[in-house]
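FAQ: What does the model actually see?

It sees only this:
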Amino acid sequence: MSPADNLILAEKYRPKTLDECILPEKTKNDLHAAIDSGNVPNIVMYGPPGTGKTSACRAIANDIGADLLYLNASLERNIDTIRNQVVSFSSSVSFGGGLKIVLLDEFDGMTLLQQNAMKGVVEEFPNARFFFTSNHINKIIEPIRSRCVNIDFKIDNKSKADVAAKFFKRVIQILQKENIEFEKPVVAELIKKHFPDFRRTLNEIQRCSASGKIDVSVLADHSVETFNTLFEAVKNKDYYTVRRWIGANSDVEPHILFREIYDRAEELIDPSTVKNLIVILSDYQFKAAHSVDPEILLSAFFVEMMNVVTWKK
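And it is asked to produce this:
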């Protein structure tokens, strides 16, 4: 067994070139325009999680033969990271004589002090380029953004069908290579459920394929009946049942649950309080992106929902 066989699917099948990346045409064209001129700029890539920002950065480094330093910026909370790793790497000569790329992944997780320290570093080393990824560009300070080409990875409505179709084709190829049995409609439903988070989709497909087959049984984990049990407890303001449900269904991502509630709001909620529900859904959707403990986040959400929502009889 090769080391690659032990990798999770999202890493094992990460695109090697920019052309292999599944992106909206405009996003891919913007990236090509940025690097094909021969003078690669510093780039901020921003947008929802799992949409290919990190993969695009790595692919560009491969395409141009650059040395790459990868740092998960959200985990590097010490100013010495910049001094000891970024500056050291950027100031040395590339093994191949070309550019060096510093990839600061999830840069919006860096402290304000670290971000400010990066301002001068970005312009100091002529043989280095800096790629920043972020889910929330407003959390990157303006002096960094102004020193970079800013590329949005959000998938607009016009591009969704095309991108989803290409991703479906890629997933089918992966399943065939892995010799995993599957039913195409079930794979399509899993992609629809998690779109546009490709990484989350591949992780979920890998989890579902543990038995060696992806069939309709994997879609039954969180049926309408399961959600109805939760909604009935919320309606009755039975907090302890709600809390037990959250603990027993910890594999349900908050954004999936929020979407289920949003889609069924008009069916279940009195029209006079649907607007209140949408406001708190939006608030907790944002909070979920920064939450350390999703169980506590969902508990807080349902407590607030109990207080502001009136249910239909």
